[in-house]
């Protein structure tokens, strides 16, 4: 075991290393800075990777990465082919469990603890979970399940820094504050809870409901609580972890830390340093420019839109599951504090809360990332769609998000939403259309979703005027001049309209901005199939079950046969990296769309000329579905991406 002085020296170097690395690449910073000492202490006390440490979310795991053989690779963080920004089992044996969506760590570590008991092994499991992550139902499901199992050996470390991305919210936050206020910071011994009080009893005792006059929520649940301990004080932390290491029962160690600790700009503004881009650590982040940049992000478009609607209509309320900044609700909350609901990390609740508002005649807008709406899927169906409740879903980060990688890609929403009855699903081609679609959704007397990508669009700045779009009607943007031969029609959804138009100029194709994934403009699809030789769909989402599949189903329903090419995200997870590079690798930029169509048409021509069997099929215009785009992951594996 390394001496305490050495551990302190390691912590100092680790913090400097972390700051240097993240300021050079961008990534998650303030959470990692806050757990430097905790990371050092855990690795000093536990025998990793034999003992398992499961980092919840994993955005705080960079110090752990640096300590576990990845120091030199930190410069590749979140870039194509480089280190993941989250724990990854594929990356290191020290990453016990892949995480990135929050609140999974206790469940995963509990599963591991069960296997250890079943296998009669001498190993330990630790889940490190933040106070923000503890607002999600999943975490409570795990705690509830873990409690009262004295035979298990599981340590849950609650890293309480009072912060989610924004300041933590809710009753739990208040409860943690009360514990700290009433008990003070403990340094071991009886005041720390039952576990350390009975260190002489190596088997430990299970927490008893109401055992202490100021029982914590955790004790009331049946966990063995220890703390609160200063998470930056290695002299307190290390002995405490040593004391808890071999104890049986589900132990909860309450560690208090400061997000951004050790780098003053991040301590003062942990929100901005949660996930900064590159910056000079000597200077810090540049203050946000007061004037608007020429191109707005879709998030900013949403932000302006909801403020405008709220000024017009008092029934408009906004709900965010802990993504106030990322979803563009800071200004709205500032202007309408009593109409903005940050519910913490609680996506399921966010959706159903919207249902409650809608049932009473309000117009709730649930602002949510595509990837996080996956958590609220049953609520979307059961609580909203079945009852046709007018909830607007403003779905940000739909499509390829980039550096956060496979866990955060908004690849699935079109597929998982278009099968839900009563739900309207829109995908804007540009910023102005985004605003009009959000307005359309809000006016619609039923649930409606608008899915838009991370970052900026083509730059078509939104009109101040709001006009509802006719529901289920696409927009023909370009008509091919070709009279016969390969008359190609490109049916583009959302962000694919722009590259489709560029490709269409080169190959002379018709382009439709489909606008609606659901209800689909079936007439338009069928007309284009009947007047063209080849139909191509393009979407920034998974091909399987996605918008292109909707078009195919529309043709099948009327027995219309047409060679059909579906462009989108192939059946694989998209790795992390620069979004433009990832889109290009998926064949979803103008060059890729053009190349895929040329290949497809060539293939059809060859088949028509060479192979009698296929020619017969083609001449009878039997539907030919072809998708040849390589997956992005396979391109990265082949080293084909720069
Ligand atoms: C299910 C889910 N919702 C939202 C997020 C986005 N998110 C990432 S970190 C974070 C804050 C987590 O707070 P906490 O667990 O306390 O960790 P801290 O950053 O404070 O260390 C949020 C909301 C997520 N990763 N997963
Ligand atoms: C870890 C996490 O889930 C978030 O911090 C996420 O990385 C934010 O992504 P954006 O940068 O797209 O808001
Ligand atoms: Mg926190």
Query: Tally of extended strands?
Result: 18
* Structural domain tally: 3
Would you tell me which CATH topology of the largest domain applies? Rossmann fold
- Give the uncertain stretches in residue-range form: 198-213, 613-630, 637-642
What is the strand content? 5-15%
Mean pLDDT: 91
- Percent of residues in helices comes to 25-40%
With strands numbered from the N-terminus, the spatial order across the biggest sheet is 7-6-8-9-11-10-15
Query: Do you know the CATH architecture of the largest domain?
Result: 3-Layer(aba) Sandwich
Structural class: alpha/beta
Named once each, the bound ligands are: thiamine diphosphate, 1-deoxy-D-xylulose-5-phosphate, magnesium ion
The coarse overall form would be: globular
Q: What is the CATH class name of the largest domain?
A: Alpha Beta
Looking at CATH, the homologous superfamily of the largest domain is Thiamin diphosphate (ThDP)-binding fold, Pyr/PP domains
Q: Using only CA atoms, what is the Rg? A: 27 Å
Detailed description of the structure:
The longest helix has 22 residues, at 4-25. Mean pLDDT is 91; it is low at 198-213, 613-630 and 637-642. Helix 6 (137-146) links the parallel strand 2 and strand 3. The strands form three sheets. Strands 7-6-8-9-11-10-15 form a seven-stranded mixed β-sheet, sandwiched between helices. The chain folds into three domains: 4-268, Thiamin diphosphate (ThDP)-binding fold, Pyr/PP domains (Rossmann fold, 3-Layer(aba) Sandwich); 298-451, 3-Layer(aba) Sandwich (Rossmann fold); 475-637, Rossmann fold (3-Layer(aba) Sandwich). The chain is of the alpha/beta class. The protein contains 26 helices and 18 strands.
């Amino acid at each position: 075991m390394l001496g305490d002085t050495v551990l302190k020296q390691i912590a100092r170097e680790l913090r400097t290393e972390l700051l240097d690395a993240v300021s050079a690449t961008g990534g998650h910073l303030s959470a990692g800075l806050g757990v430097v000492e905790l990371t050092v202490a855990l690795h000093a006390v536990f025998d990793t990777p034999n003992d398992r440490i499961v980092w919840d979310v994993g955005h705080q795991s960079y110090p752990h990465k640096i300590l576990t053989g990845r120091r030199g690779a930190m410069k590749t963080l979140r870039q194509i082919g480089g280190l993941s920004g989250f724990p990854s089992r594929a990356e290191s044996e020290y990453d016990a469990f892949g995480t990135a969506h929050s609140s999974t760590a206790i469940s995963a570590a509990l599963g591991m603890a069960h296997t250890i008991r079943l296998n009669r092994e001498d190993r330990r499991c630790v889940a490190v979970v933040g106070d923000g992550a503890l607002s999600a139902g999943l975490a409570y499901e795990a705690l509830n399940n873990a409690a009262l199992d004295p035979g298990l050996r599981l340590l849950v470390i609650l890293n309480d820094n009072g912060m989610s991305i924004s300041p933590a919210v809710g009753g739990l936050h208040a409860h943690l504050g009360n514990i700290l206020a009433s008990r003070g910071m403990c340094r071991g011994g009886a005041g720390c809870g039952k576990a350390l009080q009975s260190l002489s009893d190596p088997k430990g005792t299970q927490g008893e409901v109401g055992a202490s006059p100021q029982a914590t929520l955790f004790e009331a649940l049946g966990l063995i609580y220890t703390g609160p301990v200063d998470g930056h004080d290695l002299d307190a932390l290390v002995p405490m972890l040593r004391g808890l290491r071999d104890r049986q029962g589900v132990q909860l160690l309450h560690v208090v830390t400061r997000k951004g600790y050790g780098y003053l700009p991040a301590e003062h503004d942990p929100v901005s340093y949660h996930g900064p881009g590159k910056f000079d650590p000597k200077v810090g982040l540049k203050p946000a420019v007061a004037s608007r940049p020429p191109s707005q992000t879709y998030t900013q478009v949403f932000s302006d839109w909801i403020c405008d609607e709220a000024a017009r209509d008092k029934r408009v309320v906004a709900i965010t599951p802990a993504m106030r900044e990322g979803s563009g609700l800071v200004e709205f909350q500032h202007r309408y504090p009593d109409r903005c609901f940050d519910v913490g990390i609680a996506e399921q609740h966010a959706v159903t809360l919207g249902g409650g508002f809608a049932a009473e005649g309000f117009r709730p807008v649930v602002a949510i990332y595509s990837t996080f709406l996956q958590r609220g899927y049953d609520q979307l169906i059961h609580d909203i769609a079945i009852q046709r409740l007018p909830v607007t879903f403003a779905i940000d980060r739909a499509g390829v998000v980039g550096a956060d990688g496979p866990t955060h890609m908004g690849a699935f929403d079109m597929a998982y939403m278009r099968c839900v009855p009563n739900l309207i699903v829109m995908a804007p081609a540009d910023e102005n259309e985004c605003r009009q679609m959000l307005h359309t959704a809000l006016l619609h007397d039923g649930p409606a979703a608008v899915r838009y990508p991370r970052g900026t669009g083509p730059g078509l700045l939104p009109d101040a005027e709001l006009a509802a779009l006719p529901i289920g009607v696409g927009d023909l943007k370009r008509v091919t001049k070709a009279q016969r031969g390969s008359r190609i029609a490109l049916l583009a959804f959302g962000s694919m309209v722009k590259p489709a138009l560029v490709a269409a100029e080169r190959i002379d194709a018709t382009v439709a901005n489909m606008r609606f994934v659901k209800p689909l403009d079936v007439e338009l699809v069928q007309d284009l199939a009947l007047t063209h030789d080849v139909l191509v769909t393009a979407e920034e989402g998974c091909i399987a079950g996605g918008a292109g599949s909707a078009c195919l189903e529309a043709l099948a329903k009327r027995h219309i046969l047409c060679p059909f090419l579906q462009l989108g995200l192939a059946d694989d997870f998209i790795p992390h990296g620069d979004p433009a590079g990832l889109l290009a690798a998926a064949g979803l930029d103008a060059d890729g769309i053009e190349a895929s169509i040329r290949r497809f048409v060539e293939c059809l021509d060859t088949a028509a000329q060479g192979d009698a069997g296929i020619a017969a099929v083609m001449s009878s215009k039997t539907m030919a579905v072809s998708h040849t785009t390589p997956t992005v992951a396979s391109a990265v594996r082949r080293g084909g991406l720069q």
